[in-house]
Amino acid sequence: MKTYTATPADIEKKWVLIDAEGVVLGRLAAIVANRLRGKHKPTFTPHMDMGDHVIVINADKVQLTGNKRADKVYHWHTGYPGGIKSRTAGQVLEEHPERVVMKAVQRMLPKNRLSRRQMTNLRVYAGAEHPHEAQKPEVLDVKSMNKKNTRS
Predict the structure, then answer these.
(1) Closest Cα partner for 63 from 104, 96, 22, 100?
(2) Under 8 Å between Cβ of 38 and 44
(3) How many other C-beta atoms are found inside a 10 Å radius of the C-beta of residue 83?
(4) How many helices (H) and strands (E) does the chain have?
(5) Are 17 and 138 in contact (CB under 8 A)?
(6) Which residues 6+ apart lie within 8 Å of 47 measured at CB?
(7) What are the pLDDT digits (tens) for 17-55?
């Protein structure tokens, strides 16, 4: 039996809507990363962009466990001497909540050109409104997925 490899003609991309309200950030990011890569499909091919278009709404209502809102720190460097900057997750969530979700998903993808192309299929919105109704996205219930996967 030969190994199946998908071709660009075989790829079917869907639109998926995920509500992040009350969902833990890491669990949400893992589910979104799998959807973006296409690992949920039986025809997954690692070197092809097989994933779906993912819309995440209510990013401002995502949950952080423990003291991560105050303890988790995002660092970046301006490029100048002594230019290291940092902000806590709570500060970033107040100003730009969609960036926290984007960064969590980005860091769960491989570090290569394909993952940068897959990140263009992710749209994150702070509120419940999004401009993608014309694509008729199917709603993915992440809260029930987490309840099935957690142990009692």
Answers:
(1) 22
(2) yes
(3) 9
(4) 6, 6
(5) yes
(6) 114
(7) 999 999 999 999 999 999 999 999 999 999 999 999 999
**Angle subtended by helix axes 97-106 and 25-37, to nearest 10:** 60
- Report the C-alpha gap between 149 and 152 in whole angstroms: 10
Q: Are strands 73-77 and 122-124 parallel, antiparallel or unpaired?
A: unpaired
Q: What is the mean pLDDT of the chain?
A: 94
Q: What is the pLDDT of residue 143?
A: 87
pLDDT in tens, 107-122: 999 999 999 999 999 9
How many residues would you count in the chain? 152
* Domain boundaries 14-64+98-141, corresponding CATH code: 3.90.1180.10
Pairing of strands 84-88, 73-77: antiparallel
Terminal alpha carbon distance of the chain: 41
In the structure encoding, which two tokens stand for residue 29, read together? 């990011």
